[in-house]
Automatic annotation (TrEMBL), chain A:
<dbReference type="Pfam" id="PF00443">
    <property type="entry name" value="UCH"/>
</dbReference>
<dbReference type="InterPro" id="IPR013083">
    <property type="entry name" value="Znf_RING/FYVE/PHD"/>
</dbReference>
<dbReference type="InterPro" id="IPR038765">
    <property type="entry name" value="Papain-like_cys_pep_sf"/>
</dbReference>
<dbReference type="GO" id="GO:0005634">
    <property type="term" value="C:nucleus"/>
</dbReference>
<protein>
    <submittedName>
        <fullName>Ubiquitin carboxyl-terminal hydrolase</fullName>
    </submittedName>
</protein>
<dbReference type="GO" id="GO:0016579">
    <property type="term" value="P:protein deubiquitination"/>
</dbReference>
<keyword id="KW-0378">Hydrolase</keyword>
<dbReference type="InterPro" id="IPR028889">
    <property type="entry name" value="USP"/>
</dbReference>
<dbReference type="InterPro" id="IPR050164">
    <property type="entry name" value="Peptidase_C19"/>
</dbReference>
From TrEMBL, chain B:
<feature type="region of interest" description="Disordered">
    <location>
        <begin position="159"/>
        <end position="193"/>
    </location>
</feature>
<feature type="compositionally biased region" description="Acidic residues">
    <location>
        <begin position="275"/>
        <end position="285"/>
    </location>
</feature>
<feature type="compositionally biased region" description="Polar residues">
    <location>
        <begin position="236"/>
        <end position="258"/>
    </location>
</feature>
<protein>
    <recommendedName>
        <fullName>Transcriptional activator</fullName>
    </recommendedName>
</protein>
<feature type="compositionally biased region" description="Low complexity">
    <location>
        <begin position="174"/>
        <end position="185"/>
    </location>
</feature>
<feature type="region of interest" description="Disordered">
    <location>
        <begin position="232"/>
        <end position="400"/>
    </location>
</feature>
<feature type="compositionally biased region" description="Polar residues">
    <location>
        <begin position="389"/>
        <end position="400"/>
    </location>
</feature>
């Protein structure tokens, strides 16, 4: 774009965002006047706005929430305060008008969202220049346009492609009706596939990859390629007006034809496990898009394929010998986190109902605590002592993936005459917003609590939920996916609106969280 | 805390009792402030969406006027004119706002197609009748109505085992997404928002299969592994009457007693299994010739009566049986196919798949189904199925 904002540190002139078709140039007439005064005013306004955003999003909330009233009293409020754009004051809503008439400062930044309030409009204004800065700060934590790590996932800054006419002249716009919201027909006990496919379809990273021709089904030579089938499916969902359900025939046939021995069991006409299908699909897509090496779960192998960029993270397990205090680290890559519920729900049950209002229910965080914070005892062969020793083993997440997939192991083996699997129906409460920082190895550092930037990079938003209803050996899968802020319930070919409460009250089996700031 | 400004927080909704202790008042005030924040954040979000949409609408409108003013003489995106509307000014190729777009602009134009957005759903909760004289953007608000999806669509009940013939006949030809819908116009009987299940083409045999049967079809068409075949063989031995086929003619003689064999085709043993779905098989397969159809139909009907009690078997057993049948069929059918690829093969081949497919619902409900007419026999069969199944297929015990 022509008006790429300059880097924050440079003394260069700040620029107002260039006019875009279909969009006014300024948020309101008053901002227009501010920006058209002279370059110096524009510079200070933009710099002040950036500084205020940094205060709001990078420091502890106490600072922007503390205002000084006109009579010099310091007030800290839970409710929003207003930070003056033209001077360093922070004001309560009540004092805003007085400050304005006294100093004739007209623009304030609201302390919760960073939105700009214009006193003359008496309204919040959404100025393209300021809004771009705000969204960048919210999205990536930085104002700069530095290249993103996973560059090929996103638009590149090729000069040819940056030309706005390049895209319009080389593409046809998809219909406004094509929203990516379609059901997938059940082809006979394939609901376990449908739920995973829906969660892939609404995964922004995979969507961008496929819609930006990441794997072109027209040029792929592999017969019955599952990635091509995915490509076709993305096209059908996001470019075609059809609102009828989708028939995933190619996925299905690719699946039948696939010769993955490890997943041979899946190839039956019976009901299957959605998690196994997820693993199957992920590995299959990795092989089609990746370096061709077989992924070994448990090894540190990682490649740059879309699946690895999307789902794979790294776990580090630290084993400390109880005898010599020698420490060994082991790093493994993971596709998903599997959280056992069995032990925890039993423990909870024993503790008694007094500690909790609902004794049978767990929270996702408790399950994560159990796996990635607490350490367990084990025996291992210590190199220093050259003998078997008692050791403490502790696992934490070394690298968080962009899309975190969590499986709640809702099955257990019942001991008894016949060992058989049973389903655990324990309610596990899961949040819409998940902070993964405590489960990373960086959380061990003491200063980590202070580092808001780090904390923010570990915030995940719930993206989709796969729910299993019924018994262990038979039942049905449903899923919920979020598109923007709206949740949708997918039941095979049927798509319905869903409330957040529907989502949060469901008995999740698989959870997909997407990182909030893709940095 | 804004406690000094009043008895409670900013929202003023959660108020402690007059004589409550200070801690109570404080906690009420905190809760009240938090409630205020939640509402504040929501309102800011909605405000942003709406105001940006209106501001862009104002810009789109004035840009359109500017383009019209120069009469399309140039394809330049920045016509050199000055236009002013109630909401915006176009000058020097830039748009600036006049006043607050929330008050100056009442409608919302789609930023892509520049058509007005429909602001209310057309059906269900909060529905309003759209103005018939306006062409709206195709992106409509989602519909919230029980029994319908977000587009206001609903589906004809696939109805496994119910109203067989008629239902199925209605289902298939009216299918909108099948490549060439049949000539029968039963689709007209339905409102346009009632959809039926489509058919899809099998990537291997290129046949058109009703989607609900696709998985089973592919299971037998593509996924005919040795494992299945062996199971099929086991099945055949234990259950000859069902899986009998005329090519390897070790079928117990009793099983074919009631089956009149129409000529050299000898398709009948199979026919019985698939009775239920015969019709769509033929319907969806456009190559089927009419006389043949007629000939086959009565057959199917007859057999149906004989075998009906078997169809509502419990889920596991049922599925397995179908599968094995499917694969055993396939072995045979493939051969037939090679020799003589006439049209009749299609329906025949489809049949094994047909029964099991009665869509997922049936399978799911399996255990809850009413008791079988001959529980003992069925049970035995099922157990055998289980045994053959357990041979290493269940590597992990996931919830199914």
């Amino acid at each position: 774009m022509a008006a790429r904002p300059t880097t924050p540190a440079s003394p260069k002139n700040q620029k107002v965002k260039a006019p875009q078709p279909g969009q006014p140039m300024y948020g309101c007439e008053h901002l227009q006047r501010l920006f058209n005064q002279d370059q110096a005013t524009t510079n200070t306004s933009i710099q002040h706005y950036k500084a205020i955003l940094r205060t709001i999003f990078d420091s502890i909330p106490l600072i922007p929430q503390t205002a000084k009233t006109l009579d010099g009293q310091i007030v800290t409020s839970l409710t929003p305060t207003y930070l003056c754009l033209q001077c360093p004051s922070t004001l309560t809503e009540a004092d805003r008008t007085k400050h304005g008439s006294k100093k004739s400062h007209r623009f304030y930044v609201e302390s919760r969202s960073g939105a700009l309030y214009c006193q003359m409009c008496d309204d919040i204004v959404w100025d393209p220049t300021f809004e771009e800065l705000r969204l960048k700060k919210l999205g990536t934590g930085t104002f700069s346009n530095r290249k993103r790590k996973n560059e090929e996932l996103f638009e590149t800054s090729d000069p040819v492609r940056d030309n706005p006419t390049y895209i319009s002249s080389n593409t046809t716009a998809a219909s406004c009706k094509a929203s990516g919201l379609r059901g997938i027909y059940n082809a006979g006990a394939t609901c376990y596939q449908n739920v995973v496919l829906q969660s892939f379809l609404h995964n922004p990273i995979l969507r961008n990859f496929y819609l930006s021709d990441g794997h072109s089904s027209t040029s792929c030579e592999t017969p019955h390629c599952l990635s091509c089938a995915m490509d076709d499916m993305f096209q059908d969902f996001y470019a075609i007006e059809n609102t009828n359900g989708y028939t995933a025939a190619n996925i299905l046939s690719g699946f039948w034809i696939s010769e993955k021995k490890a997943f041979e069991n899946l190839v039956t006409t019976k009901e299957q496990d959605a998690h196994e299908f997820f693993q199957f699909l992920a590995e299959e897509l990795h092989e089609r898009n990746g370096d061709g090496r077989k992924p070994e779960i448990g090894s540190e192998h990682s490649c740059n394929c879309i699946i690895h960029q999307c789902f794979y993270g790294k776990l580090q397990s630290t084993t400390t010998c109880q005898n010599c205090s020698g420490v060994t680290h082991q790093v493994q890559s993971f596709l998903d986190l599997s959280l056992p519920l069995e032990n925890l729900s039993h423990k909870k049950g024993k503790k008694g109902a007094s500690s909790r209002p609902s004794p049978g229910s767990l929270t996702l965080q408790e399950c994560l605590d159990e796996e990635y914070i607490k350490s367990d005892k084990c025996e291992y062969r210590c190199h220093n002592c050259s003998s078997m020793q008692q050791a403490r083993r502790q696992t934490s997440i070394k690298r968080l993936p962009n899309v975190l997939s969590i499986q709640l192991k809702r099955f257990e083996y019942k001991q008894g005459r016949h060992e058989r699997a049973a389903k655990i129906d324990t309610t596990v409460q899961f949040p819409l917003e998940l902070n993964m920082l405590p489960y990373t190895n960086r959380a061990r550092g003491q200063d980590a609590k202070e580092d808001y930037e780090l904390a923010r990079s570990c915030i995940y938003d719930l993206l989709s939920v796969v729910v299993h209803v019924g018994e262990i050996d038979t039942g049905h899968y449903l899923s919920y996916c979020r598109v923007g802020d709206q949740w949708f319930a997918f039941n095979d070919h049927k798509v319905e609106l869903a409330q957040k409460s529907d989502v949060l009250n469901s008995r999740a089996y698989l959870l997909f969280y997407v990182v909030r700031s893709l940095s | 805390m804004s406690s000094e400004t009043g008895e409670t927080g900013k929202a003023g909704i959660i108020v402690a009792a007059e004589d409550a202790p200070p801690v109570d008042k404080l906690s009420h005030a905190v809760l009240d402030d938090l409630l205020y924040n939640i509402i504040h954040d929501l309102v800011v979000k909605v405000h942003r969406d709406e105001k940006v949409a209106r501001a862009n609408t104002a810009a789109i409108k004035v840009e359109k006027l500017a383009l019209n003013a120069i009469d399309g003489a140039t394809t330049d995106h920045k016509p050199d004119v000055e236009i002013e509307t109630d909401a915006a000014i176009y000058k020097d190729g830039r748009v600036t706002l006049k006043g607050n777009p929330l008050t100056t602009t009442k409608e919302v134009l789609c930023p892509r197609c520049h058509l007005p957005r429909l602001l209310h759903p057309t059906d269900g909760k909060g529905a309003k009748k759209p103005d018939p004289g306006v062409i709206y953007c195709k992106k409509h608000p989602y519909i919230e109505k029980p029994g319908y999806d977000i587009y206001g669509q609903t589906w004809v009940a696939p109805g496994p085992g119910r109203g067989k013939k008629k239902k199925d006949q209605k289902l298939d030809p009216s299918d909108p997404s099948s490549p060439a819908p049949g000539a029968e116009g039963s689709a007209k009987d339905r409102p346009p928002n009632v959809l039926s299940f489509p058919s899809a083409t099998c990537s291997k045999c290129k046949r058109c299969i009703l989607v609900t049967r696709l998985n089973n079809h592919m299971g037998s068409c593509i996924g005919n592994s040795g494992r299945n075949a062996s199971r099929a063989a086991a099945q055949k031995i234990s259950n000859g009457s069902n899986a009998g086929s005329q090519n390897n003619d070790n079928t117990p003689p009793g099983s074919q007693k009631g089956t009149p064999r129409p000529g050299s085709r000898g398709a009948s043993p199979r026919k019985r299994d698939g009775d239920e779905f015969d019709e769509d098989g033929e319907e969806s397969d456009q190559t089927v010739t009419n006389p043949k159809k007629k000939k086959l139909k009565p057959n199917a009907l007859n057999k149906k009566v004989v075998l009906k009690p078997k169809s509502p078997a419990t889920s596991g057993g049922n599925m397995k049986k179908d599968k094995t049948k499917g694969s055993s069929m396939l072995n045979v059918e493939q051969k037939v196919d090679d020799k003589d690829s006439t049209v009749q093969v299609a329906p025949k081949k489809l049949t094994p798949n047909a029964k099991g497919v009665s869509p997922a619902k049936k399978i799911k409900l399996g255990p809850a189904k009413p008791p079988l007419p001959s529980p003992a026999g069925k049970k035995g069969k099922r157990d055998r199925d289980m045994e053959s199944e357990s041979s290493g297929t269940l590597s992990s015990p996931p919830p199914r």
